[in-house]
Amino acid sequence: MAPQVPDKQWAQVVEQKGGPPVYKEIPVPKPGPDEVLVQIKYSGVCHTDLHAMKGDWPLPLKMPLVGGHEGAGIVVAKGELADGVEIGDHVGIKWLNGSCLACEYCKTAEEQLCAGQQLSGYTVDGTFQQYAIGKAAHVTNLPKDVSLDGIAPILCAGVTVYRGLKESAARPGQTVAIVGAGGGLGAMAQQYAKAMGLRVIAIDGGDEKREMCEKLGSEAYIDFTKSKDLIADVRAATPDNLGAHAVLLLAVSEKPFQQAVEYARPRGNIVAIGLPAHAFLKAPVFESVTKMINIKGSYVGNRQDAAEAVGFYARGLIKAPFKTVPLKDLPKVFELMEQGKIAGRYVLQMPE
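Above: the chain sequence. Below: its structure as tokens.
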């Protein structure tokens, strides 16, 4: 028997580009033929949500907008063509809400490159609401014995950094430098890297983030606010002073993207993941060529990446550091985010 679904719900709605989000009652949406309606229990808050509110990126921005793309909850309704998921299943709604499933990229498991992709909390309403819509083919099945609050950040932060580490081609025993290691993405990246047998150099700023990174098992912490020569410090933290085999750029400012070539070792792979607004990748041509550096982007993950990332968490290999606050406190979370004062992840709890 399907659960009773109300007509109204509480949500955080951005009514005009730039915000702020407004906590208000809105109608509960109804799923289309290939969609499911998920009662969201928890939703992580990502820096992307702040970019979405501001309309920072050259993507079509829905307005008014319900943000959010790390939603974990329970399926309460489904369309007649929604296969592979049943009412009562625990599922996650991610950044990639839907894709065409028919283009070259969808057919080769690169659906994040689909020209017809739908993005939760940017081009379609996301998970900062009690009930959210997801395409049945793209929701991620979650184990029922795993807590929904802790697994919510895996649905973006976890999947994104896991895919980035795969793109880095770093092998067990090699060193990866993680820039922005003390943030929500960075905390996940350190743990996935360690679970994959990699050695971690954490780069970030502040003593609170140092403490967190050291607890997560980083072999070295480089504080960019105190370092007199960040390049030399990173190289010195590698076993042979040659630099990192791989660099994951999770920063939300441009400067770290310009520095990475200098502390990546020859044949090193630099993976850009963070999306600072209006930023550019620049690298010295001489060092890039003579060190044979590979610079590439990594954009979220596909459906299999999501299943694998959830599997790491379900096996107890990832413990995402998070703080839980009520949905109504989203503006306070954004304020802390803009001030760079968040270590780990904030997770919003939906009202009952």
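The mean pLDDT is 95.
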